[in-house]
Amino acid sequence: MLTGERLARLQQLWEDNEAHDHHVATRAEKRLTITPQTGRFLYQLSRTRRARITLEIGTSSGYSTLWLALAAQAHKGQVVSVDHSAHKIALAHANLQAFALEPVVTLHADDAFAVLANTADESVDLLFLDADRQRYPGYWPEITRILAPGALLVMDNALSHVEECAPFVQAVLATRGYLAETYPIGKGQFVILKDL
To answer: Where does this protein have coiled-coil stretches (predicted)?
Structure first.
């Protein structure tokens, strides 16, 4: 449940992350946090879907992971999150500890392809995609395999990075059985329903 105290802590963490990113030079050092509006949207989708298994590709510092974990905790789901950076996984772990959410989340410092390949068919109810956008089209065949019928996929940056996201969007729209729409929330959320 999103109490006022938790919402205030999430807002403060976002502000701290934004301030941090303003003062660092390289992308690898940035925390690249989703907006609080996007966090609330993910929370709503997870709670509505009652996602048993949520997969996040692109943990970064774990801000989005917190929103997904809070939703999963409320309906006894689990979150699996992967990022190639061990440093960012460590930051995410610290944030999860601060919110007492470690039991809800499994973190992987690994390549997303490896995690996708080891995920069971039709086992994922919600997938949040917020990583290296050039790799998304390559993920798509594995994603279609692991999404459960009625599952949702949310891709961040659909409006802030339209050109980078275009090949993935085209691949999705060309696949039968998937309904997709872009919502002007945060940096733009491309939401896909596996309508099979």
So the answer is: none
Structural domains in the chain (count): 1
Asked, for residue 43, whether it belongs to a domain, the answer is yes
User: Is residue 17 domain-resident?
Assistant: no
Which secondary structure element, helix H or strand E, spans residue 164, and what is its range? Answer: helix 162-173
Q: For residues 112-137, b (16+ Cβ closer than 10 Å) or e, as one string?
A: beebbeebeeeebbbbbbbbebeebb
What's the pLDDT score for residue 25? 83
CA dihedral of 120, 60, 32, 190, whole degrees rounded to 10: 10
181, β-bridge pairs: 191
Looking at 30-39, 42-51, 59-68, 126-135, which range is the least confident one?
30-39
Residue 151 domain boundaries: 33-194
- List the structure tokens of 106: 């499994």
pLDDT at 125 (0 to 100): 98
Residue 2 maps to a domain: no
C-alpha to C-alpha distance for 138 and 65, rounded to whole angstroms:
23
Cα–Cα dist 98/164, whole Å: 34
Report the CATH number that the domain containing residue 177 is assigned in CATH.
3.40.50.150
pLDDT score, position 6: 94
The Cα–Cα gap between 144 and 72 comes to 22
| Contact in structure between 54 and 124 (CB atoms under 8 Å) | yes
Residue 21 lies in a domain: no
